[in-house]
Amino acid sequence: MDAAFTPEQSEIRRTLRAALSKGGPPGPPGRDDTASAAAAGPGYDPGLWARLTGGLGLPGLALDEKYGGAGCGVTELALASEETGRALVPLPLFATSGLAAPLITALGAERQRAALLPGIADGTLTAALCVPGTALATALALTGGDAHGTWAGGGRAGGIQARPDGHGGWRLYGEAEQVLDGHSAGLLLVAAHTGGFTRGRTLLFLVRAPDADGLRRTRWTALDETRPQARVQLRDTRAELLGDDPGADVPAALAATGRTAAALLAAEAVGAAAAALDRTVAYVKDRQQFGRAVGSFQAVKHRLADLYVRVQAARSAAYYAAWDPGEGALALAQCLEALRTVAGEAIQLHGGIGFTWEHAAHRYFKRAASDELLFGPVHRLRARAAETAGLFAPAAAVPAAPAAALADGPRAGAGAGPRPGAREAAGV
């Protein structure tokens, strides 16, 4: 693997970092400059989004050129995600380009791709993926999932249900509890169960918001205000089937999207961890205690060195996942763990000011905790990756002891303990 970036990839990173530095990254210690943008109606700064889309073509990086995209790939989008993670600026980039656009590209009919992807590429259309309840990580096959998509609803009750309306369209019923940027997205991709209980299957549907009938969207007060979430309720809402094939393998497409999304999230986490470490290093260089900088103490140097190694190892994993999204889940686990550790140490090393809730250091900690709740936890990401890779073969069945031997009990003079070999036969 050649880990060196091309001049074009390096330019994407440099240009985006410069643009985000003017668009409201974390301000000086003790102040959060993105709070107003996150609390705004859409959950992000529309002016910044317009600059990133119009001048840089950010949401269209991985889209085909015939749809108005840049024709790049996952690597370029991951580099962009690393920079947005570094700045922790609220943007609808991940929900639109990381989740919705790949599904439209994979499953959508040509007429749907031609109608929707150009708007995504130029930033005029944002999109969100709606899955029932709180099953996002399961739907993306990051921590579970199955080939039938039973997380979408059992066909009798719960989840999101779809039925034909008799006029070539569909009607949706149900709700999704945690939809990233769901309150402001102009297009919703809804995973719904259809076909009844015995012949049910999961399909994806398009709902054009906010004019859809029977659609209600409520923004939650989320732990991480830079990644807005909403509850989406569907009550006899008209929808359009994504693609022309009702037999499409939607769970497989969602799993493929999940691998790419994991690579993007890993890059985001690395950017956030690196920024938290940089801010902490800058602080301990300036903070004076006992007549000298806090960073000059050997114990502090050791802690910072350990954090640096963690960030660099996580960055290597994230870059490898960007090159090979099949390793996205493992990279995400390592990067989330690194971000959680660095964010916690950042609060500690900032001392008394770091423990105040309004300090910018808490934004990194909130991002780490929120991402683990949404896409993890870390041990389940690793367990799922190991299961998918077939690392753990099923245990061999232990042959049952003969019934006669069990009935005889201990022989005379042998005592009350088990006979030789009995513990091995029992798997002890």
From TrEMBL:
Residues of the Acyl-CoA dehydrogenase/oxidase C-terminal domain: 263-387
Chain residue ranges for the region called Disordered: 18-39, 409-428
Keyword check for tRNA-binding: no
SUPFAM superfamilies: Acyl-CoA dehydrogenase C-terminal domain-like, Acyl-CoA dehydrogenase NM domain-like
Keyword Flavoprotein: yes
Skewed-composition ranges (Low complexity): 419-428
Keywords (A to Z) from UniProt: FAD, Flavoprotein, Oxidoreductase
Entry GO MF terms: acyl-CoA dehydrogenase activity; flavin adenine dinucleotide binding
InterPro entries: Acyl-CoA_Oxase/DH_mid-dom_sf (IPR046373), AcylCo_DH-like_C (IPR036250), AcylCo_DH/oxidase_C (IPR009075), AcylCoA_DH/ox_N (IPR013786), AcylCoA_DH/ox_N_sf (IPR037069), AcylCoA_DH/oxidase_NM_dom_sf (IPR009100)
Ranges of residues in domain Acyl-CoA dehydrogenase/oxidase N-terminal: 6-123
Cofactor(s) listed in the protein's UniProt record: FAD
UniProt superkingdom: Bacteria
Family listed: Belongs to the acyl-CoA dehydrogenase family.
Protein name: Acyl-CoA dehydrogenase
